[in-house]
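Q: Here's a chain of 534 amino acids. Please give me its 3D structure as tokens.
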Amino acid sequence: MSLDFLAPTDATAAPVPAAAAGAQPDAQLPALRQTFTRLGPEFYSSHAPQGLPEPRLRLVSEDAARLLGLRAPDPEQPLQSQSCAQWAHVFSGNAAAAEPAGSAGCGAISTVYAGHQFGNWAGQLGDGRAHLLGEAPAPDPAQAQGHGWWEVQIKGAGRTPWSRHADGRAVLRSSLREFLCSEAMWHLGVPTTRALCLVDSDLPVRRESIERAAVVARLSPSFLRFGHFEHFSHSGRHDALRRLVDYAVERLYPQAAQASNPALALLREVGAATAALVARWQCVGFVHGVMNTDNMSMLGWTIDYGPFGFVDAFDPGYTPNTTDAYGRYAWARQPAVARWNLLALAQALLPLIGDEQSARDAVEEFADHFMPAMRDGMQDKLGLGPARDDDPDLVQDWIDLLAACRADWTIAHRQLAHCVARPQAGVPDALQAQFAAWPQRLQDWLERLQRRLDGLDAAQRAQRAERMLRVNPCYVLRHHLGQEAIARAEAGDFGAARRLQRVLRRPYEEQPGCEDLAAAPPADAGPPVLSCSS
């Protein structure tokens, strides 16, 4: 295996041809290139990562490695093995740190952006602990939303000019959570940045206590955020804003270039992608926890896993973020916050859009995309098939029942498939247990469901149930499972993390011997909440 492609190359180099589909995983790839640098020096800083002393490769995603045409090493090999050592050296930032500073546009870069945090203007932010190594060609562009490249970024490799007063480091605890959740979300079918690998070191990092340093390497066709546009708009640099819009249109939404107002078309495209994303979050019971505008991707992908959580005992007001005192980023509020963030993006783009009403109208299209996506998602989750006029009431009553009983979102939906497939078999014990506080309300609702499905024969019911099992996962990254994996990893044992990684690659399949990973949290499990440092 070769990682020679990670040597940086000048942004003005000829475009890198995509590798042929079906290339061998260990095929050599050309050098990474930087394209963001062509926007100009006010957009980024060339700043080498500090790297990690004596880095160790701990986790690798074989699936993500294949996106780059690479064969992943086995991190359970002896740590001194050549392939593991090479990956640890490169993806800790040590290889990039060894590169000379060079000319502008070469080497690792960090970008500047701004943002609204908890609804308040935070001003200039930026990649405080992230270094963009460059982009590599995608052997299979379909895996990159049709794009022909993957940007490679490392997170936690030291200070950048945008670190403010922070150290630019990430700790093992938060890095492990991001690695596991981004891979879990991808296999759930939710658009997300990918985690390529996790490297740690004995370098001490101070948070609430002294912890171990770690770096996650992650992939995305683009790491552009709403905040990039806010930064240049709010500072009045409209020429730079136009260059950024042109770059985003060319790279992410080339169809918008044909519109009479490309900035307005870009806003519409981002709104549609964001609506589809949030509908997927809602349906799998995922709560992002920090939906600040600087954490919103222009691609409509999930980015920046901090205090996230999957709903266990369903509460529409659940937020996993201890900082979110008023529940701004709770499950039920995520769609409204997404729309608010799009308004902030529209405000940033207004100097180029020109007409305020057109910008508002574009944002209001969010509902036109979100509502059908959410409706279709819940129709599939409940086995209802094509929507009927009275289905919204049936769906809402189900959500209200889940909330009243604090039923487990994942288990309840998964078990419901058995009621659709075999109504004569009665209500599964595992489903009844979720509604022990209101058994009659469950029975009444199930009778309504069965009346709704009248007319389906056994084969049709089986098909509906099979579809339900393909959209209602058996496994999600529950908080207590992640915390257990973290505790063991901090003690040097990554076995629990690797087991979770393997199982979460097939979240819709029941895997023998993994029943503990599908179960609800034990009664003594800690609350599923985290601080922003998590």
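Q: Can you summarize the key feature?
A: Residues 356-381 form the longest helix (26 residues).
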